[in-house]
Specification:
This is Histidine biosynthesis protein. It comes from Salmonella enterica subsp. enterica serovar Agama. There is one protein chain. This protein is of the alpha/beta class. The chain has 12 helices and 9 strands. The protein has one domain: TIM Barrel (Alpha-Beta Barrel). The protein has an 8-stranded parallel β-barrel with strand order 1-2-3-4-5-7-8-9, surrounded by 7 helices. Helix 8 links the parallel strand 4 and strand 5. The radius of gyration is 18 Å and the shape is globular.
Length: about 280
């Protein structure tokens, strides 16, 4: 693959992200879940102003009712069964209906922390890139694995957004860091190995937290991340309308929002059909 060409492709993708952050006053959203995998809903949210989308394999498993899954927790258990070609088809459909300035980062089998062997080679990355992806959304939890992902993605002009988790998280979704100081160390190393955007998993327990607020531990970890790196930063997990303002106050650039939007879309669908069947 031509290195110069792919570097230009990746730079163009990153510019989309930076322009979205600026357009929305320093913080924007990465819309995922239903709005990342369904072309009609992706088009709708982009018409509303969304600039960043994330189709991913667990969300596609849920959208297709694969093996009867009906919630994201169950979908995560079988996400590896969604093929790369299925993801490429979904990405291609979304890319066909959204403007060129929309950034699409994609979660694929093999790109997360897997419990079963899942091949991920140049073939899969090329297929996703040619489908219209700008980036690769990864949740690797091992440094060597993450470096391999970065090398593969960059070879085909894809950005990489990778995540920092907590050792006590229910699911392993990133390189572990227990304290804010460890977050700083991990984030800096991620930036050094070429990660283009660095996120923090924030879906830990919110029990006992005042309505509209987020745990102090999450605030401290996010501020540590934001202050440690120059690349765009993300928060993923537990984000909803009630606490979005609290996340904004941390200075993080991008909020990854999936479940909250999914729930609103499902409720809207119920409200839309109810008048037709209740007389």
């Amino acid at each position: 693959m031509f290195k110069g060409d792919m570097n230009k492709k990746r730079a163009k993708a990153l510019q989309k992200v930076k322009e979205a952050i600026t357009l929305h006053g320093g913080q924007t959203i990465l819309s995922t879940g239903i709005t990342g995998d369904d072309a009609r809903l992706a088009k709708a949210v982009c018409e509303a102003g969304v600039k960043l989308l994330e189709p991913n394999h667990p969300a596609l498993a849920l959208a297709r009712g694969h093996k009867g899954v009906s919630n994201m927790h169950a979908a995560e258990q079988i996400r590896h069964e969604i093929t790369n070609s299925q993801m490429a088809e979904a990405v291609h459909g979304v890319r066909n209906v959204v403007p060129d300035d929309i950034f699409i980062t994609v979660g694929i089998a093999g790109g997360f922390t897997e419990t079963l062997p899942v091949p991920l080679s140049e073939t899969e990355i090329l297929e996703i890139a040619r489908a219209g992806a700008d980036g690769l959304h990864t949740h690797k939890s091992d440094w060597d694995d993450l470096q391999d992902i970065v090398n593969l993605a960059h070879q085909y002009g894809l950005t990489v957004d990778a995540y920092i988790g907590h050792p006590d998280d229910l699911h392993t979704f990133g390189i572990p860091a227990r304290t804010p100081e460890e977050v700083v160390s991990v984030a800096k190393r991620m930036q050094d190995i070429g990660v283009d955007m660095i996120g923090l998993m924030t879906g830990m327990s919110y029990e006992g937290v005042a309505a509209g607020d987020i745990p102090q531990m999450i605030k401290d970890r996010l501020r540590a991340l934001v202050g440690a790196v120059d690349v765009p930063t993300l928060a993923e997990g537990g984000i909803n309308l009630a606490n979005a303002k609290a996340f904004k106050d941390t200075g993080v650039n991008i909020l990854v929002v999936g479940t909250a939007i999914d729930n609103m879309v499902c409720n809207a669908a119920k409200e839309a059909v109810t008048p037709f069947i209740v007389h």
